[in-house]
Amino acid sequence: MPVDSPEQVRARLEETGYLVDDGLAVACFLALKLHRPVFCEGDAGVGKTALAAALAEAFGAPLIRLQCHEGIDASQALYDWDFPRQLLHLRAAEAAGVKDAERLERELYDRRFLLARPLLRALQTQPSVLLVDEIDRADDEFEAFLLEVLSEFQVTVPELGTLRADEPPVVVLTSNRTREVHDALKRRCLYHWFDHPGFARELAIVRRRLPEVSARLAEQVTALVQALRAEDLLKPPGVAETLDWTRALDALGASEVDAELAVATLGSVLKYREDTDRARALDFAAILAGRPT
Protein backbone atom coordinates (compact mmCIF):
# COMPACT_ATOMS: atom_id res chain seq x y z
CA MET A 1 0.00 0.00 0.00
CA PRO A 2 2.26 2.82 -1.22
CA VAL A 3 1.82 6.21 0.46
CA ASP A 4 4.18 9.17 0.57
CA SER A 5 2.90 11.26 3.46
CA PRO A 6 0.32 11.53 6.24
CA GLU A 7 -1.48 14.09 4.10
CA GLN A 8 -1.93 11.50 1.38
CA VAL A 9 -3.35 9.04 3.89
CA ARG A 10 -5.72 11.72 5.19
CA ALA A 11 -6.90 12.55 1.66
CA ARG A 12 -7.58 8.92 0.78
CA LEU A 13 -9.47 8.31 4.02
CA GLU A 14 -11.52 11.46 3.56
CA GLU A 15 -12.50 10.26 0.09
CA THR A 16 -14.29 7.40 1.85
CA GLY A 17 -16.11 9.84 4.14
CA TYR A 18 -13.88 9.19 7.17
CA LEU A 19 -12.41 12.38 8.64
CA VAL A 20 -9.12 12.14 10.55
CA ASP A 21 -7.10 14.56 12.66
CA ASP A 22 -3.35 15.09 12.37
CA GLY A 23 -2.45 12.51 15.02
CA LEU A 24 -4.48 9.74 13.44
CA ALA A 25 -3.25 10.56 9.95
CA VAL A 26 0.34 10.25 11.18
CA ALA A 27 -0.40 6.99 13.04
CA CYS A 28 -1.96 5.44 9.94
CA PHE A 29 0.92 6.59 7.75
CA LEU A 30 3.48 5.07 10.11
CA ALA A 31 1.45 1.86 10.35
CA LEU A 32 1.66 1.52 6.58
CA LYS A 33 5.34 2.43 6.40
CA LEU A 34 6.63 0.49 9.42
CA HIS A 35 4.18 -2.44 9.36
CA ARG A 36 3.10 -1.67 12.91
CA PRO A 37 -0.44 -2.20 14.21
CA VAL A 38 -2.54 0.80 15.21
CA PHE A 39 -3.99 0.43 18.70
CA CYS A 40 -7.22 2.44 18.87
CA GLU A 41 -8.65 3.05 22.32
CA GLY A 42 -11.69 5.04 23.41
CA ASP A 43 -15.37 4.89 24.19
CA ALA A 44 -17.71 2.85 22.01
CA GLY A 45 -19.06 4.62 18.95
CA VAL A 46 -16.22 7.10 18.37
CA GLY A 47 -15.01 5.63 15.06
CA LYS A 48 -12.40 3.02 15.99
CA THR A 49 -13.91 0.12 14.05
CA ALA A 50 -14.88 2.45 11.21
CA LEU A 51 -11.19 3.35 10.75
CA ALA A 52 -10.37 -0.20 9.66
CA ALA A 53 -13.26 -0.22 7.18
CA ALA A 54 -12.16 3.16 5.81
CA LEU A 55 -8.55 1.97 5.38
CA ALA A 56 -9.75 -1.11 3.52
CA GLU A 57 -11.92 0.98 1.21
CA ALA A 58 -9.27 3.67 0.71
CA PHE A 59 -6.60 1.19 -0.38
CA GLY A 60 -8.83 -1.35 -2.14
CA ALA A 61 -7.99 -4.14 0.30
CA PRO A 62 -10.35 -6.70 1.84
CA LEU A 63 -11.30 -6.14 5.47
CA ILE A 64 -10.76 -9.24 7.61
CA ARG A 65 -12.36 -8.96 11.04
CA LEU A 66 -11.56 -10.89 14.20
CA GLN A 67 -14.23 -10.16 16.81
CA CYS A 68 -12.80 -10.83 20.25
CA HIS A 69 -14.90 -12.18 23.10
CA GLU A 70 -14.42 -13.79 26.47
CA GLY A 71 -12.89 -17.24 26.03
CA ILE A 72 -11.63 -16.77 22.47
CA ASP A 73 -8.64 -19.03 21.79
CA ALA A 74 -5.98 -19.51 19.13
CA SER A 75 -7.93 -22.10 17.12
CA GLN A 76 -10.84 -19.70 16.68
CA ALA A 77 -8.51 -16.95 15.52
CA LEU A 78 -5.92 -18.85 13.52
CA TYR A 79 -6.94 -22.11 11.84
CA ASP A 80 -8.71 -25.41 12.14
CA TRP A 81 -8.84 -28.61 10.14
CA ASP A 82 -11.87 -29.49 8.02
CA PHE A 83 -12.58 -32.80 9.75
CA PRO A 84 -15.69 -33.75 7.69
CA ARG A 85 -13.75 -33.37 4.44
CA GLN A 86 -10.77 -35.21 5.89
CA LEU A 87 -13.06 -38.08 6.86
CA LEU A 88 -14.59 -38.21 3.38
CA HIS A 89 -11.11 -38.28 1.87
CA LEU A 90 -10.08 -41.09 4.21
CA ARG A 91 -13.11 -43.18 3.30
CA ALA A 92 -12.54 -42.56 -0.41
CA ALA A 93 -8.90 -43.64 -0.05
CA GLU A 94 -9.92 -46.80 1.81
CA ALA A 95 -12.49 -47.60 -0.87
CA ALA A 96 -9.80 -47.16 -3.51
CA GLY A 97 -7.57 -49.61 -1.66
CA VAL A 98 -4.92 -47.13 -0.55
CA LYS A 99 -2.78 -48.83 2.11
CA ASP A 100 0.12 -46.38 2.46
CA ALA A 101 -0.45 -44.87 5.94
CA GLU A 102 2.24 -42.19 5.58
CA ARG A 103 0.81 -41.05 2.27
CA LEU A 104 -2.67 -40.89 3.76
CA GLU A 105 -1.44 -38.82 6.69
CA ARG A 106 0.32 -36.38 4.37
CA GLU A 107 -2.82 -36.04 2.26
CA LEU A 108 -5.09 -35.57 5.27
CA TYR A 109 -3.03 -32.65 6.51
CA ASP A 110 -2.67 -30.94 3.17
CA ARG A 111 -3.45 -27.22 2.87
CA ARG A 112 -6.67 -27.98 0.99
CA PHE A 113 -8.14 -29.22 4.27
CA LEU A 114 -6.94 -26.21 6.26
CA LEU A 115 -9.68 -23.83 7.40
CA ALA A 116 -8.05 -20.42 7.72
CA ARG A 117 -9.53 -18.26 10.46
CA PRO A 118 -9.16 -14.44 10.43
CA LEU A 119 -5.52 -14.20 11.54
CA LEU A 120 -4.26 -16.76 9.04
CA ARG A 121 -6.48 -15.37 6.27
CA ALA A 122 -4.97 -11.94 6.84
CA LEU A 123 -1.43 -13.34 6.62
CA GLN A 124 -2.30 -15.14 3.39
CA THR A 125 -4.15 -12.24 1.74
CA GLN A 126 -2.11 -9.45 0.17
CA PRO A 127 -2.97 -6.69 0.61
CA SER A 128 -5.45 -6.84 3.48
CA VAL A 129 -6.63 -4.92 6.52
CA LEU A 130 -6.97 -6.97 9.71
CA LEU A 131 -9.35 -5.63 12.33
CA VAL A 132 -8.91 -7.14 15.80
CA ASP A 133 -12.03 -5.71 17.39
CA GLU A 134 -12.50 -5.25 21.14
CA ILE A 135 -9.24 -6.89 22.21
CA ASP A 136 -10.08 -5.84 25.79
CA ARG A 137 -12.75 -8.58 25.85
CA ALA A 138 -10.15 -11.33 25.33
CA ASP A 139 -8.06 -12.82 28.14
CA ASP A 140 -4.35 -12.53 28.94
CA GLU A 141 -3.43 -15.78 27.20
CA PHE A 142 -4.96 -14.65 23.93
CA GLU A 143 -3.19 -11.30 24.20
CA ALA A 144 0.14 -13.10 24.52
CA PHE A 145 -0.66 -15.28 21.51
CA LEU A 146 -1.69 -12.26 19.45
CA LEU A 147 1.50 -10.41 20.38
CA GLU A 148 3.56 -13.34 19.08
CA VAL A 149 1.70 -13.41 15.76
CA LEU A 150 1.88 -9.64 15.22
CA SER A 151 5.57 -9.46 16.11
CA GLU A 152 6.68 -11.64 13.20
CA PHE A 153 3.57 -11.85 11.02
CA GLN A 154 4.01 -15.58 10.86
CA VAL A 155 2.43 -18.67 12.39
CA THR A 156 3.50 -22.27 12.74
CA VAL A 157 1.16 -25.08 11.74
CA PRO A 158 2.81 -28.30 13.04
CA GLU A 159 1.68 -30.36 10.03
CA LEU A 160 2.71 -27.74 7.44
CA GLY A 161 5.54 -25.73 8.99
CA THR A 162 5.86 -21.95 9.30
CA LEU A 163 3.53 -19.79 7.24
CA ARG A 164 4.71 -16.20 6.69
CA ALA A 165 3.02 -13.16 5.23
CA ASP A 166 4.70 -11.99 2.02
CA GLU A 167 3.27 -8.56 2.75
CA PRO A 168 2.12 -7.91 6.33
CA PRO A 169 -1.50 -6.80 6.64
CA VAL A 170 -2.45 -3.40 7.94
CA VAL A 171 -3.59 -4.17 11.50
CA VAL A 172 -6.08 -2.15 13.53
CA LEU A 173 -6.74 -3.19 17.13
CA THR A 174 -9.59 -1.60 19.05
CA SER A 175 -10.35 -1.42 22.76
CA ASN A 176 -13.30 0.09 24.61
CA ARG A 177 -11.14 -0.03 27.75
CA THR A 178 -13.39 -2.39 29.67
CA ARG A 179 -10.06 -3.55 31.12
CA GLU A 180 -6.45 -2.50 30.69
CA VAL A 181 -4.64 -4.23 27.84
CA HIS A 182 -1.12 -5.30 28.78
CA ASP A 183 1.78 -2.98 28.04
CA ALA A 184 3.63 -5.60 25.97
CA LEU A 185 0.93 -5.55 23.29
CA LYS A 186 0.62 -1.78 23.36
CA ARG A 187 4.39 -1.37 22.94
CA ARG A 188 4.18 -3.31 19.70
CA CYS A 189 1.60 -0.85 18.37
CA LEU A 190 1.17 2.78 17.43
CA TYR A 191 -1.28 4.12 20.02
CA HIS A 192 -4.11 6.55 19.35
CA TRP A 193 -6.80 7.67 21.78
CA PHE A 194 -10.20 8.37 20.21
CA ASP A 195 -12.01 11.16 22.01
CA HIS A 196 -15.48 12.48 21.33
CA PRO A 197 -15.20 15.21 18.68
CA GLY A 198 -16.09 18.83 19.27
CA PHE A 199 -19.12 20.45 17.67
CA ALA A 200 -17.50 21.61 14.42
CA ARG A 201 -15.75 18.33 13.75
CA GLU A 202 -18.78 16.22 14.60
CA LEU A 203 -20.99 18.35 12.36
CA ALA A 204 -18.50 17.89 9.53
CA ILE A 205 -18.65 14.12 10.03
CA VAL A 206 -22.45 14.12 9.95
CA ARG A 207 -22.54 16.28 6.82
CA ARG A 208 -19.96 14.07 5.11
CA ARG A 209 -21.60 10.77 6.06
CA LEU A 210 -25.22 11.90 5.59
CA PRO A 211 -25.22 14.48 2.79
CA GLU A 212 -28.89 13.83 2.08
CA VAL A 213 -30.14 15.30 5.38
CA SER A 214 -30.83 19.01 5.78
CA ALA A 215 -28.02 21.20 7.08
CA ARG A 216 -30.31 22.49 9.83
CA LEU A 217 -31.17 19.00 11.06
CA ALA A 218 -27.50 17.96 11.09
CA GLU A 219 -26.55 21.04 13.10
CA GLN A 220 -29.40 20.64 15.59
CA VAL A 221 -28.74 16.96 16.25
CA THR A 222 -25.03 17.62 16.70
CA ALA A 223 -25.81 20.38 19.22
CA LEU A 224 -28.15 18.08 21.14
CA VAL A 225 -25.58 15.28 21.29
CA GLN A 226 -22.91 17.68 22.50
CA ALA A 227 -25.28 18.75 25.29
CA LEU A 228 -26.05 15.13 26.22
CA ARG A 229 -22.34 14.36 26.54
CA ALA A 230 -22.01 17.17 29.05
CA GLU A 231 -24.38 15.29 31.35
CA ASP A 232 -23.30 12.55 33.77
CA LEU A 233 -24.56 9.66 31.63
CA LEU A 234 -23.83 5.96 32.05
CA LYS A 235 -23.08 5.72 28.32
CA PRO A 236 -22.44 9.04 26.58
CA PRO A 237 -23.45 8.88 22.91
CA GLY A 238 -20.70 8.45 20.36
CA VAL A 239 -20.52 9.63 16.77
CA ALA A 240 -22.27 6.41 15.74
CA GLU A 241 -25.29 7.41 17.85
CA THR A 242 -25.23 10.92 16.38
CA LEU A 243 -25.49 9.40 12.93
CA ASP A 244 -28.21 6.99 14.07
CA TRP A 245 -30.28 9.80 15.58
CA THR A 246 -29.93 11.90 12.44
CA ARG A 247 -30.96 8.98 10.23
CA ALA A 248 -33.97 8.27 12.46
CA LEU A 249 -35.18 11.87 12.29
CA ASP A 250 -34.62 12.00 8.54
CA ALA A 251 -36.58 8.75 8.16
CA LEU A 252 -39.46 10.46 10.00
CA GLY A 253 -39.41 13.19 7.36
CA ALA A 254 -37.95 15.85 9.65
CA SER A 255 -35.86 18.63 8.16
CA GLU A 256 -35.43 20.12 11.64
CA VAL A 257 -36.07 18.95 15.18
CA ASP A 258 -38.00 20.47 18.07
CA ALA A 259 -37.98 19.54 21.75
CA GLU A 260 -40.97 17.21 21.48
CA LEU A 261 -39.51 15.24 18.58
CA ALA A 262 -36.10 15.08 20.27
CA VAL A 263 -37.62 13.48 23.39
CA ALA A 264 -39.70 11.07 21.31
CA THR A 265 -36.62 9.76 19.49
CA LEU A 266 -34.18 9.51 22.41
CA GLY A 267 -34.14 5.73 21.96
CA SER A 268 -32.01 6.27 18.84
CA VAL A 269 -29.20 7.84 20.82
CA LEU A 270 -29.42 6.65 24.46
CA LYS A 271 -29.49 2.98 25.44
CA TYR A 272 -29.99 3.04 29.23
CA ARG A 273 -33.19 3.92 31.09
CA GLU A 274 -31.25 6.04 33.59
CA ASP A 275 -29.72 8.07 30.76
CA THR A 276 -33.10 8.54 29.10
CA ASP A 277 -34.65 9.73 32.37
CA ARG A 278 -31.83 12.23 32.87
CA ALA A 279 -32.15 13.47 29.28
CA ARG A 280 -35.91 13.98 29.59
CA ALA A 281 -35.23 16.47 32.36
CA LEU A 282 -33.15 18.67 30.03
CA ASP A 283 -34.58 21.78 28.40
CA PHE A 284 -34.18 20.73 24.77
CA ALA A 285 -35.89 23.89 23.55
CA ALA A 286 -33.24 26.02 25.27
CA ILE A 287 -30.45 23.88 23.85
CA LEU A 288 -31.83 24.22 20.34
CA ALA A 289 -32.30 27.96 20.75
CA GLY A 290 -28.77 28.42 22.08
CA ARG A 291 -27.04 27.16 18.93
CA PRO A 292 -27.25 29.59 15.97
CA THR A 293 -28.37 28.00 12.70
Care to describe what's here?
With 293 residues, this protein is α/β, with parallel strands linked by helices. It has 3 domains: 6-74 and 117-194, P-loop containing nucleotide triphosphate hydrolases (Rossmann fold, 3-Layer(aba) Sandwich), CATH 3.40.50.300; 80-111; 199-287. The chain contains 15 helices and 9 strands. The strands form 3 sheets. Strands 2-5-8-1-9 form a 5-stranded parallel beta sheet, sandwiched between helices. A two-stranded antiparallel sheet has the order 3-4. 32% of the residues are buried.
Quick structural overview:
By secondary structure, the chain is an alpha/beta fold.
Secondary-structure blueprint of this entry?
Elements: H1 6-15, H2 22-34, E1 38-42, H3 48-58, E2 63-67, H4 74-77, E3 79-81, H5 83-95, H6 101-108, E4 114-116, H7 118-124, E5 129-133, H8 140-152, E6 154-157, E7 161-164, E8 170-175, H9 183-188, E9 190-194, H10 199-209, H11 215-229, H12 239-251, H13 259-264, H14 273-280, H15 284-290
Helix pairs in contact: 1-2, 10-11, 10-12, 11-12
Structural class of the helix and strand makeup?
Answer: alpha/beta
What does the radius of gyration come to? 24 Å
CATH class of the largest domain: Alpha Beta
- Annotated CATH homologous superfamily of the largest domain: P-loop containing nucleotide triphosphate hydrolases
Write down the domain tally.
Answer: 3
Q: Gap between N and C termini, in Å?
A: 42 Å
Query: Percentage of helical residues?
Result: 40-55%
Overall shape: it is elongated
The biggest beta sheet reads: 5 strands, parallel
Strands side by side in the biggest sheet: 2-5-8-1-9
Give the helices and strands as they follow along the chain: HHEHEHEHHEHEHEEEHEHHHHHH
Q: What's the number of helices?
A: 15
